[in-house]
Hints:
InterPro entries: Dimeric_a/b-barrel (IPR011008). This is DUF4188 domain-containing protein. By secondary structure, this protein is of the alpha+beta class. It has a single domain, classed as 2-Layer Sandwich (Alpha-Beta Plaits). It has helices at 9-28, 83-92, 129-146, 162-167; strands at residues 32-33, 42-45, 50-59, 67-74, 106-112, 120-127, 153-158, 181-182. Strands 1, 2, 3, 4, 5, 6, 7 and 8 form an 8-stranded antiparallel β-sheet that branches. A hairpin with a 7-residue loop joins strand 5 and strand 6. It starts with 8 loop residues before the first helix and ends with a strand.
Amino acid sequence: MTTPQPLPWPEALNAFGRCLAGVVGSLRRRRLRQPSSNIGRVIAFADGTRAAVYRETVLHDGPVTEPAGLIVCFRLRWVKGNRLAHRLFRIESVCNTILFAGFDGFVTKLWMTADGNNLYRGVYEWDGYDSAADYVRALWWPLMAVAQRDSIRFHVVADSTRETLLAGTPGDTDGHEWWRPVPG
Length: 184
């Protein structure tokens, strides 16, 4: 699955409302964390790019029964190669936690810096393939507002934790599998 098929707008708005309520509940129960152990970790991808983790978000909400890896990719419209604009986006992006951390099935997210092609990636783990896909279908709307539409992509990998996904697999680096981490 690599092309977002957005939810109808009213359904997406409803999903984000539930997400916000979930984030508030997680913060009250102190289950939402931003550990620093992965900050600076560099991930190589099959398209030949590399990006570093600048933030991590983890929800401590019980055991994962159906792990699914998710990689989301987009290019911001107005930022391009401007270093200050990239830095400001990374600072502001903490506010975007309300756009994902309350969705059913969210486990963890690594926030990646823009790569050499100015593409940002989020590397997630979800509990449930369908939960990951539902999230991306809602996410399409806020991404569409700030990203170049043709740059918005995602890929869900069933039966994959974040760490098994990031362990990567050797293979061609022809760019067709932009989402696939490779040993770096």
